[in-house]
Specification:
The chain has 352 residues and is α/β, with parallel strands linked by helices. It has 12 helices and 12 strands. The strands form 2 sheets. Strands 2-1-3-4-5-11 form a 6-stranded parallel β-sheet, sandwiched between helices. The protein has a 6-stranded mixed β-sheet with strand order 7-6-8-9-10-12, sandwiched between helices. α11 links the parallel β8 (258-261) and β9. α5 (93-107) packs across α12 (311-327), α8 packs parallel to α9 and α10 (239-250) packs across α11 (264-276).
Length: 352
Amino acid sequence: MEEVNELGVSAGPGPRKGRSRVTVKDLARDLGMSVSTVSRAFYAEAVVAPATRELVLKRARELGYRPNPMAQSLKTNRTQIAGMVVSDITNPFYPEVMSRLAAGLHEIGMNVMLISAPQAGEIDDAVKLLLSYQPDLVIILAATLSSEAMQECRKAGSPCIFFNRLSSDPDSFGVSCDNAKGGVKAADFLIERNHKRLAYISAYADASTNMERRDGFLNRVVERDLARPLVIEAGSFSYEAGYEAAGAFGELEARPDGVFCANDIVALGFIDGVRNRLGLDVPGDISVVGFDDIAMAGWPSHGLTTVGQPVDEMVSATVELAATLAADPREKPIVIRLAPHAIVERTTTRRR
Protein backbone atom coordinates (compact mmCIF):
# COMPACT_ATOMS: atom_id res chain seq x y z
CA MET A 1 0.00 0.00 0.00
CA GLU A 2 1.32 3.44 -0.93
CA GLU A 3 2.23 5.87 1.84
CA VAL A 4 1.12 9.49 1.52
CA ASN A 5 2.45 12.59 3.20
CA GLU A 6 0.50 15.17 5.16
CA LEU A 7 -0.64 16.80 1.91
CA GLY A 8 -1.80 13.54 0.36
CA VAL A 9 1.22 13.24 -1.94
CA SER A 10 2.25 9.68 -2.71
CA ALA A 11 5.60 8.54 -1.42
CA GLY A 12 5.78 6.11 -4.36
CA PRO A 13 6.21 2.32 -4.38
CA GLY A 14 8.76 0.41 -2.40
CA PRO A 15 9.78 0.09 1.25
CA ARG A 16 10.66 3.78 1.77
CA LYS A 17 9.45 5.02 5.15
CA GLY A 18 8.35 8.50 6.20
CA ARG A 19 6.89 11.39 4.23
CA SER A 20 8.04 12.38 0.77
CA ARG A 21 9.61 15.76 0.12
CA VAL A 22 7.14 18.62 0.06
CA THR A 23 7.31 20.74 -3.09
CA VAL A 24 6.33 24.35 -3.70
CA LYS A 25 3.30 23.06 -5.62
CA ASP A 26 2.22 21.04 -2.58
CA LEU A 27 2.62 24.10 -0.35
CA ALA A 28 0.64 26.28 -2.77
CA ARG A 29 -2.15 23.72 -2.98
CA ASP A 30 -2.29 23.46 0.82
CA LEU A 31 -2.55 27.24 1.19
CA GLY A 32 -4.93 27.72 -1.71
CA MET A 33 -2.51 30.14 -3.37
CA SER A 34 -0.77 30.27 -6.72
CA VAL A 35 2.70 28.79 -7.05
CA SER A 36 4.10 32.19 -8.07
CA THR A 37 2.72 33.87 -4.91
CA VAL A 38 4.19 31.19 -2.67
CA SER A 39 7.55 31.33 -4.47
CA ARG A 40 7.79 35.11 -4.13
CA ALA A 41 7.24 34.89 -0.36
CA PHE A 42 10.75 33.43 0.02
CA TYR A 43 12.45 36.43 -1.58
CA ALA A 44 12.82 39.44 0.70
CA GLU A 45 12.93 41.82 -2.25
CA ALA A 46 9.77 40.41 -3.91
CA VAL A 47 6.49 42.30 -3.64
CA VAL A 48 4.23 40.22 -1.38
CA ALA A 49 1.74 41.34 1.28
CA PRO A 50 3.39 40.99 4.73
CA ALA A 51 0.50 38.87 6.04
CA THR A 52 0.78 36.53 3.04
CA ARG A 53 4.55 36.16 3.44
CA GLU A 54 4.16 35.40 7.15
CA LEU A 55 1.48 32.79 6.43
CA VAL A 56 3.56 31.09 3.73
CA LEU A 57 6.75 30.97 5.83
CA LYS A 58 4.87 29.69 8.88
CA ARG A 59 3.21 26.88 6.94
CA ALA A 60 6.48 26.03 5.20
CA ARG A 61 8.17 25.57 8.58
CA GLU A 62 5.32 23.35 9.78
CA LEU A 63 5.57 21.11 6.72
CA GLY A 64 9.35 21.11 6.56
CA TYR A 65 9.47 22.78 3.15
CA ARG A 66 12.74 24.39 2.12
CA PRO A 67 13.24 26.32 -1.11
CA ASN A 68 15.62 24.75 -3.57
CA PRO A 69 18.75 26.95 -3.47
CA MET A 70 19.72 26.00 -7.03
CA ALA A 71 16.31 27.05 -8.31
CA GLN A 72 16.57 30.28 -6.36
CA SER A 73 19.99 31.00 -7.85
CA LEU A 74 18.56 30.73 -11.36
CA LYS A 75 16.05 33.46 -10.54
CA THR A 76 18.38 35.78 -8.64
CA ASN A 77 21.66 35.01 -10.48
CA ARG A 78 23.21 34.65 -7.00
CA THR A 79 24.11 31.33 -5.36
CA GLN A 80 24.44 32.53 -1.75
CA ILE A 81 27.73 30.59 -1.66
CA ALA A 82 30.81 32.04 0.02
CA GLY A 83 33.81 30.03 -1.09
CA MET A 84 36.59 29.71 1.49
CA VAL A 85 40.08 28.66 0.33
CA VAL A 86 42.89 27.87 2.77
CA SER A 87 46.37 26.40 2.27
CA ASP A 88 47.59 26.32 5.88
CA ILE A 89 44.86 24.34 7.62
CA THR A 90 47.42 22.73 9.97
CA ASN A 91 48.08 26.12 11.57
CA PRO A 92 45.71 26.20 14.59
CA PHE A 93 44.96 29.87 13.90
CA TYR A 94 42.97 29.11 10.77
CA PRO A 95 40.58 26.39 12.02
CA GLU A 96 39.69 28.78 14.86
CA VAL A 97 39.05 31.56 12.33
CA MET A 98 37.14 29.37 9.87
CA SER A 99 34.59 28.25 12.46
CA ARG A 100 33.88 31.86 13.41
CA LEU A 101 33.74 33.03 9.81
CA ALA A 102 31.36 30.23 8.85
CA ALA A 103 29.02 31.09 11.73
CA GLY A 104 29.00 34.77 10.76
CA LEU A 105 28.38 34.02 7.08
CA HIS A 106 25.51 31.70 7.95
CA GLU A 107 23.91 34.51 9.94
CA ILE A 108 23.73 36.65 6.79
CA GLY A 109 22.21 33.78 4.81
CA MET A 110 25.31 32.54 3.03
CA ASN A 111 26.39 28.94 2.64
CA VAL A 112 30.09 28.18 3.04
CA MET A 113 32.04 25.96 0.68
CA LEU A 114 35.53 25.12 1.96
CA ILE A 115 38.38 24.03 -0.32
CA SER A 116 41.78 23.21 1.13
CA ALA A 117 44.88 23.37 -1.04
CA PRO A 118 47.56 21.07 0.46
CA GLN A 119 50.36 23.15 -1.04
CA ALA A 120 50.56 26.91 -1.40
CA GLY A 121 51.27 26.49 -5.12
CA GLU A 122 47.93 24.73 -5.62
CA ILE A 123 45.85 27.72 -4.55
CA ASP A 124 45.14 28.80 -8.14
CA ASP A 125 43.77 25.36 -9.01
CA ALA A 126 41.66 25.34 -5.85
CA VAL A 127 40.15 28.71 -6.72
CA LYS A 128 39.42 27.65 -10.30
CA LEU A 129 37.64 24.55 -8.96
CA LEU A 130 35.65 26.71 -6.58
CA LEU A 131 34.58 29.06 -9.39
CA SER A 132 32.84 26.14 -11.14
CA TYR A 133 30.24 26.34 -8.34
CA GLN A 134 29.65 30.05 -9.09
CA PRO A 135 30.22 31.43 -5.57
CA ASP A 136 29.05 34.95 -4.88
CA LEU A 137 32.46 35.69 -3.39
CA VAL A 138 35.73 33.99 -2.45
CA ILE A 139 37.54 34.36 0.88
CA ILE A 140 41.26 33.53 0.75
CA LEU A 141 42.99 32.53 3.99
CA ALA A 142 46.74 32.03 4.39
CA ALA A 143 47.51 32.26 0.70
CA THR A 144 48.12 34.51 -2.27
CA LEU A 145 46.75 34.26 -5.80
CA SER A 146 48.39 34.73 -9.15
CA SER A 147 47.22 37.63 -11.28
CA GLU A 148 45.70 35.07 -13.67
CA ALA A 149 43.55 33.54 -10.91
CA MET A 150 42.51 36.99 -9.72
CA GLN A 151 41.41 37.79 -13.25
CA GLU A 152 39.41 34.55 -13.39
CA CYS A 153 37.55 35.61 -10.25
CA ARG A 154 36.76 39.00 -11.73
CA LYS A 155 35.47 37.46 -14.94
CA ALA A 156 33.24 35.16 -12.91
CA GLY A 157 31.86 38.09 -10.90
CA SER A 158 33.18 36.56 -7.67
CA PRO A 159 35.20 39.18 -5.77
CA CYS A 160 38.03 37.95 -3.51
CA ILE A 161 38.48 38.93 0.12
CA PHE A 162 41.94 38.21 1.51
CA PHE A 163 41.79 37.46 5.23
CA ASN A 164 44.86 38.10 7.41
CA ARG A 165 47.42 37.68 4.61
CA LEU A 166 46.90 40.46 2.05
CA SER A 167 47.39 40.46 -1.70
CA SER A 168 49.81 42.72 -3.52
CA ASP A 169 47.07 43.38 -6.09
CA PRO A 170 45.88 46.97 -5.50
CA ASP A 171 42.40 46.08 -6.77
CA SER A 172 41.73 43.38 -4.15
CA PHE A 173 39.73 43.41 -0.94
CA GLY A 174 41.37 42.57 2.37
CA VAL A 175 40.88 42.38 6.12
CA SER A 176 43.94 42.19 8.32
CA CYS A 177 45.45 43.02 11.66
CA ASP A 178 47.83 45.98 11.55
CA ASN A 179 50.81 43.64 11.72
CA ALA A 180 53.42 46.39 11.72
CA LYS A 181 51.88 47.82 14.90
CA GLY A 182 51.98 44.33 16.36
CA GLY A 183 55.70 44.16 15.64
CA VAL A 184 56.13 47.52 17.39
CA LYS A 185 54.26 46.20 20.42
CA ALA A 186 56.57 43.17 20.61
CA ALA A 187 59.67 45.37 20.40
CA ASP A 188 58.47 47.77 23.09
CA PHE A 189 57.48 44.89 25.35
CA LEU A 190 60.92 43.25 25.24
CA ILE A 191 62.88 46.50 25.45
CA GLU A 192 60.87 47.73 28.43
CA ARG A 193 61.78 44.50 30.20
CA ASN A 194 65.48 45.22 29.72
CA HIS A 195 66.22 42.90 26.80
CA LYS A 196 69.22 44.24 24.87
CA ARG A 197 70.01 41.70 22.13
CA LEU A 198 66.96 40.88 20.04
CA ALA A 199 66.11 38.57 17.15
CA TYR A 200 63.22 37.86 14.80
CA ILE A 201 62.29 34.35 13.61
CA SER A 202 60.97 34.93 10.09
CA ALA A 203 58.43 32.76 8.22
CA TYR A 204 57.37 32.95 4.54
CA ALA A 205 59.59 35.70 3.16
CA ASP A 206 56.95 37.14 0.81
CA ALA A 207 53.90 36.82 3.06
CA SER A 208 52.45 40.22 4.00
CA THR A 209 51.96 39.12 7.60
CA ASN A 210 55.60 38.12 7.97
CA MET A 211 57.02 41.19 6.23
CA GLU A 212 54.92 43.66 8.20
CA ARG A 213 55.59 42.05 11.58
CA ARG A 214 59.31 41.84 10.82
CA ASP A 215 59.61 45.42 9.62
CA GLY A 216 57.56 46.83 12.47
CA PHE A 217 59.74 44.97 14.99
CA LEU A 218 63.11 45.74 13.41
CA ASN A 219 62.42 49.42 12.78
CA ARG A 220 61.09 49.98 16.29
CA VAL A 221 64.17 48.41 17.90
CA VAL A 222 66.44 50.69 15.88
CA GLU A 223 64.27 53.70 16.74
CA ARG A 224 64.89 52.92 20.39
CA ASP A 225 68.65 52.98 19.91
CA LEU A 226 69.39 49.27 20.13
CA ALA A 227 71.31 47.21 17.60
CA ARG A 228 69.26 46.01 14.65
CA PRO A 229 67.81 42.59 15.55
CA LEU A 230 69.16 39.47 13.91
CA VAL A 231 66.78 37.75 11.50
CA ILE A 232 66.68 33.96 11.38
CA GLU A 233 64.80 32.50 8.43
CA ALA A 234 62.51 29.67 9.49
CA GLY A 235 60.94 29.46 6.03
CA SER A 236 57.29 28.80 6.90
CA PHE A 237 54.58 29.31 9.50
CA SER A 238 54.94 25.87 11.09
CA TYR A 239 56.02 24.16 14.29
CA GLU A 240 58.71 22.22 12.40
CA ALA A 241 60.15 25.42 10.93
CA GLY A 242 60.34 27.00 14.37
CA TYR A 243 62.02 23.91 15.80
CA GLU A 244 64.64 23.90 13.03
CA ALA A 245 65.26 27.63 13.52
CA ALA A 246 66.55 26.80 17.00
CA GLY A 247 69.51 25.08 15.33
CA ALA A 248 70.50 28.28 13.52
CA PHE A 249 69.98 30.20 16.75
CA GLY A 250 72.44 27.90 18.51
CA GLU A 251 75.17 28.77 15.99
CA LEU A 252 75.16 32.47 16.91
CA GLU A 253 78.22 33.71 18.77
CA ALA A 254 76.30 36.27 20.82
CA ARG A 255 72.90 34.81 21.52
CA PRO A 256 69.97 37.24 21.78
CA ASP A 257 68.14 37.39 25.08
CA GLY A 258 64.77 38.24 23.51
CA VAL A 259 63.13 36.69 20.44
CA PHE A 260 59.99 37.66 18.53
CA CYS A 261 58.54 34.94 16.30
CA ALA A 262 56.43 35.38 13.16
CA ASN A 263 53.47 33.59 14.77
CA ASP A 264 52.53 31.41 17.72
CA ILE A 265 53.06 28.03 16.12
CA VAL A 266 56.59 29.04 15.03
CA ALA A 267 57.23 30.30 18.55
CA LEU A 268 56.12 27.00 20.11
CA GLY A 269 58.41 25.04 17.80
CA PHE A 270 61.30 27.41 18.51
CA ILE A 271 60.82 27.12 22.28
CA ASP A 272 60.88 23.32 22.14
CA GLY A 273 63.92 23.48 19.86
CA VAL A 274 66.04 25.69 22.12
CA ARG A 275 65.04 23.63 25.15
CA ASN A 276 65.61 20.18 23.63
CA ARG A 277 68.49 20.88 21.24
CA LEU A 278 70.38 23.64 23.04
CA GLY A 279 69.48 22.98 26.67
CA LEU A 280 68.40 26.60 27.15
CA ASP A 281 65.79 27.70 29.64
CA VAL A 282 62.77 29.74 28.53
CA PRO A 283 62.43 32.34 29.97
CA GLY A 284 65.55 31.98 32.16
CA ASP A 285 68.05 32.26 29.31
CA ILE A 286 65.84 33.72 26.63
CA SER A 287 62.40 35.34 26.40
CA VAL A 288 60.12 34.40 23.49
CA VAL A 289 57.10 36.30 22.14
CA GLY A 290 54.66 34.97 19.52
CA PHE A 291 51.86 36.49 17.46
CA ASP A 292 48.16 35.48 17.16
CA ASP A 293 47.16 34.28 20.66
CA ILE A 294 45.78 30.95 19.45
CA ALA A 295 44.04 28.82 22.09
CA MET A 296 47.11 26.56 22.35
CA ALA A 297 49.25 29.52 23.44
CA GLY A 298 47.26 29.74 26.66
CA TRP A 299 47.61 26.07 27.57
CA PRO A 300 49.51 25.66 30.89
CA SER A 301 52.06 23.45 29.13
CA HIS A 302 52.99 26.35 26.82
CA GLY A 303 52.14 29.64 28.52
CA LEU A 304 53.27 31.63 25.50
CA THR A 305 53.52 35.40 25.70
CA THR A 306 52.02 36.71 22.47
CA VAL A 307 50.58 39.64 20.55
CA GLY A 308 46.80 39.20 20.40
CA GLN A 309 45.16 39.33 16.99
CA PRO A 310 41.76 41.12 16.89
CA VAL A 311 40.12 37.98 15.48
CA ASP A 312 36.53 38.81 16.44
CA GLU A 313 36.82 42.27 14.90
CA MET A 314 38.47 40.84 11.77
CA VAL A 315 35.73 38.23 11.37
CA SER A 316 32.98 40.83 11.85
CA ALA A 317 34.59 43.13 9.28
CA THR A 318 34.92 40.25 6.80
CA VAL A 319 31.28 39.20 7.22
CA GLU A 320 30.12 42.79 6.80
CA LEU A 321 32.24 43.15 3.67
CA ALA A 322 30.91 39.82 2.37
CA ALA A 323 27.32 41.03 2.82
CA THR A 324 28.14 44.22 0.92
CA LEU A 325 29.81 42.36 -1.96
CA ALA A 326 27.06 39.74 -2.16
CA ALA A 327 24.60 42.58 -2.71
CA ASP A 328 26.85 44.44 -5.17
CA PRO A 329 30.10 42.81 -6.36
CA ARG A 330 31.04 46.07 -8.12
CA GLU A 331 32.01 47.79 -4.87
CA LYS A 332 35.36 49.57 -4.94
CA PRO A 333 38.27 47.55 -3.45
CA ILE A 334 39.13 48.27 0.16
CA VAL A 335 41.69 46.99 2.68
CA ILE A 336 40.68 47.09 6.35
CA ARG A 337 43.46 47.04 8.94
CA LEU A 338 42.53 46.60 12.59
CA ALA A 339 44.72 47.43 15.57
CA PRO A 340 46.26 44.45 17.39
CA HIS A 341 45.18 43.66 20.91
CA ALA A 342 47.47 44.14 23.89
CA ILE A 343 50.27 41.66 24.45
CA VAL A 344 49.15 38.71 26.54
CA GLU A 345 51.97 38.14 29.03
CA ARG A 346 52.47 34.56 30.14
CA THR A 347 55.45 32.46 31.21
CA THR A 348 57.83 32.54 28.22
CA THR A 349 59.10 36.03 29.05
CA ARG A 350 60.58 37.71 32.11
CA ARG A 351 62.23 40.97 33.08
CA ARG A 352 66.03 40.90 32.69
